[in-house]
Specification:
Number of helices: 15
Structural class: mainly alpha
Strand content: 5-15%
Order of helices and strands: HHHEHHHHHHHHHEHEEEEEHEEH
Oligomer: single chain
Helix content: 40-55%
Distance between the termini: 50 Å
Radius of gyration: 24 Å
Largest sheet: 3 strands, antiparallel
Number of strands: 9
Length: 426
């Protein structure tokens, strides 16, 4: 692991960062139960901006400071332009069509060098008319210096750099803790499951090419780590297996069940609600109470989004809105600047950012996803620090899954898991 230097951070003083990160970890605990700050892989730039609010010093010589400053101006310029445009001509950094997810086969990797290198590439391609506003702090212009389509493509690249820099700064104090998360990396199990003729290859190890052996060993060690063994233990076990023909396959089988259980844990409800009604008398309707919000438009928004997402074929989830003040009944709180989250798996408090328009795409997707946590589903994405490579790695186990990715939606597997957990006919 590279040496950690407080003086490389953008923040004013170390104690401020320490207090901030401690509060962040306490306020938004990971859905998977550890003490790291829970940062959704697809936070919006406004959410990053709120998390870094009042903690960045303009005088910092940190290389990421320029990216943060430019990213903020980028957001402000878009807001300036949109305030002067009709709804159908507003510039959008994100929309449903742009969601591609972060596939497990193509994980995102980041560190300071990667972030700054990509940023330099963005700057080189930036026309003078854009650079004069974003880099040189020129006055905002109502009309972009190029066509809208090319302009927003460029601003999205600026925004991605801003998000990557923001995320790194929020996570940098926790690199050692993120390194411990590497044991949860499920790519070994995932790739071994897809490998053709795997048993034959593992039983005939000596006949494989060096490249094939290297790749398979990486996946086998990764699967071993999922069984809570240390890397040294996995390496020793693997080296012992090499001494006898066929024992590499035995090494694979030894850890396969634990690795599968670990994979399945990303899709299994571990905590249950007690207020769900789903009985044989109405097998196609699952009813869950919800505290009636004060604003009618919020009630309509909840119903339109949650009930629209949580339905499949003839089956549907129905929100039973009730005038109750019970803290155990699911309810939504709007807090200015909050990072959206649920207080725990199968919890009853959904916190949303009061500064965000509930009709924006990001807000609509978020309430659909967060309600999954209310029902007990964990997130199915992973992020860890690869210490040997010196990079943060993150990916989504299934980009078509609502609990993994903004590209995802409700799947039959969600329905089957809900039925296992809640259907009272079993």
């Amino acid at each position: 692991m590279a040496a950690f230097h407080w003086d490389r951070l953008l923040f004013s003083v170390p104690i401020t960062l320490l207090a901030f990160t401690a509060n962040l970890a306490a306020a938004t605990p990971s859905q998977r139960g550890d003490s790291l700050p829970h940062l959704d892989l697809e936070l919006t730039s406004e959410e990053y901006r709120q998390l870094l609010k009042d903690l960045v010093t303009a005088e910092s010589d940190d290389p990421l400071a320029a990216i943060i400053a430019t990213g903020k101006r980028n957001l402000d310029w878009i807001a300036f332009i949109n305030a002067r445009r009709p709804e159908d001509r507003k510039l959008q950094l994100s929309n449903p069509a742009l969601q591609s997810g972060i596939p497990i086969d193509s994980p995102s990797m980041s560190n300071r060098t990667i972030i700054t290198t990509r940023w330099e590439e963005v700057k080189v391609a930036m026309p003078d008319g854009v650079k004069s506003v974003l880099i040189d702090n020129g006055s905002f212009t109502e009309d972009p210096p190029m066509g809208d389509e090319d302009f927003i493509v460029l601003l999205r690249k600026v925004d991605r750099s801003y998000q990557h820099a923001s995320r790194w700064l929020l996570q940098e104090p926790y690199l050692q803790a993120y390194a411990e998360r590497a044991t949860s990396d499920v790519r070994g199990f995932y790739n071994l499951r897809k490998e053709p003729n795997l048993a034959h290859k593992l039983r005939n190890w000596s006949t494989l090419t060096d490249d094939t052996r290297t790749q398979l060993k990486t996946w086998l060690i990764g699967q071993c780590l999922n069984s809570d063994a240390t890397r040294d233990e996995c390496e020793q076990q693997f080296d012992s297996a090499l001494q006898t023909d066929g024992h590499v396959h035995a090494f694979f089988e030894l850890h396969q069940a634990a690795a599968k259980e670990h994979w399945d844990s990303f899709f299994t409800i571990p905590a249950y609600r007690t207020d769900v009604e789903w009985t044989p008398s109405e097998p196609n309707t699952m009813t869950v109470p919800f505290q009636t919000p004060e604003r009618p438009e919020v009630l309509a928004w909840l119903r339109d989004n949650i009930e629209d997402e949580w339905k499949l074929s003839n089956w549907k989830l129905s929100l039973d809105f009730q005038n109750s003040t019970s803290p155990n009944m699911t309810h939504v709180l709007f807090v200015p600047g909050a990072t959206p989250h649920v207080n725990r798996l199968a919890g009853s408090i959904i916190t949303m950012d009061a500064n965000r328009d509930i009709n924006e795409y990001s807000s609509k997707w978020t309430i659909r996803h967060e309600y999954g946590h209310v029902l007990g589903f964990p997130d199915c994405y992973l992020e860890f620090y690869d210490e040997p490579a010196g990079v943060m790695v993150n990916y989504q186990l299934d980009i078509e899954n609502l609990m993994c990715s903004r590209k995802g939606h409700l799947q039959n597997t969600h329905y089957q898991e809900l039925k296992r957990a809640y259907y009272q006919g079993f």
